[in-house]
Amino acid sequence: MIVRSFELPTLSALPRRFYAPVGFAIGALVLGLSQTPLAEPFLGRVFLFYIGTSLAYVFMPLIRRGDIPLVAAWVVLLSELLPGFTGHMISAQNVLADGLGVLMAAAPIYVARFRQIQQGDTRPESRRSADN
Fold it and tell me: What is the pTM of this model?
């Protein structure tokens, strides 16, 4: 039997100089969409913040894994404070949905790291030669 090898095309990482504008664009898009009727249902908000956080992980793979959920938490905060300017109250249900969306996107990253540690796949203590 003859087997042909099949390779998927690989995408190179986005250059770091584009991380801030891309992150800002993703955050602004999620923030804007969170104020529309699209994000009124609970699952709509969960899905919106899940997609936003996942896009950040996809487009910015060299960012530390904890920084993306940290910035996403600020977007969650802003999405709840914006309606306050028009006289609406902060909704605990919306905060829960937003946080759950971020958690659903970030949790697999941390589970994968936990598995690496359990398998002994760790870097040496000192990552810089000048630290010695």
Answer: 0.81
| DSSP one-letter string for the chain | -------PPPPPPPPGGGHHHHHHHHHHHHHHHTTSGGG-SHHHHHHHHHHHHHHHHHH-TTS-TTHHHHHHHHHHHHHHHGGGGGTPPPPHHHHHHHHHHHHHHHHHHHHHHHHHHHTT----S---GGG-
Q: In this structure, what token pair is assigned to residue 43? A: 């699952």
8 A C-beta contact, residue 99 and residue 55? no
Q: Which pLDDT tens digit goes with each residue over 90-125?
A: 889 999 999 999 999 999 999 999 999 999 888 776
